[in-house]
Description:
Component of a multi-subunit COQ enzyme complex, composed of at least COQ3, COQ4, COQ5, COQ6, COQ7 and COQ9. Interacts with ADCK4 and COQ6. Interacts with COQ9. With 223 residues, this protein is mostly helical.
Amino acid sequence: MEAVVIPAVRGLRAGCQCLRYGAGSERKWSLQSKQTSFRFCSTGMTLDNINKPAIDRIIRVDHAGEYGANRIYAGQMAVLGRTTVGPVIQQMWDQEKDHLKKFNELMVAFRVRPTVLLPFWNVAGFALGAGTALLGKEGAMACTVAVEESISEHYNNQIRTLMEEDPEKYKELLQIIKKFRDEELEHHDVGLDHNAELAPAYSLLKTAIQIGCKAAIFLSERI
């Protein structure tokens, strides 16, 4: 089974790279924490003319996901912050902090309530980050690969939903989600480049984490 899954994952990774960088382009790992500032003014997006239930679900689950990701990186830094891989984890965490800040702003702007599960994600995220980091840097990077792959796939689903709904009206929200999707994919690739696949029981660990991510997404959208 593993022999079938790993080539498929590598194929997905290669396809993502072609879409993001262009065929034959050179990858450059330069993680930079940039403030993301978007105003919903040019597309006329208001509370009165949007699909409010759909936007509520998107913002609520994305806020929960970025909150959980912040807690995962906090757990990893608690264990590995003083090691050689600490600066790499910190750079990825800094980007996640920017993502969470933006979704905090969107929660207020669109009057979206957070999921009631935030206290649980607070504890569970930190435990996942610290627990996998205790397996070594490879374990932490395996966690990063699993989580970021799940989040990127979820962002892609949201992009398709908004494109089908009204790509012009939701243009700026699409810009935010696409930017964050690309940064999550970058984190995924950084994890692979830092030997995630050498983690103990990598395939089993990755599958277990991604099952948890799917459950978290399902629950956070609804409660």
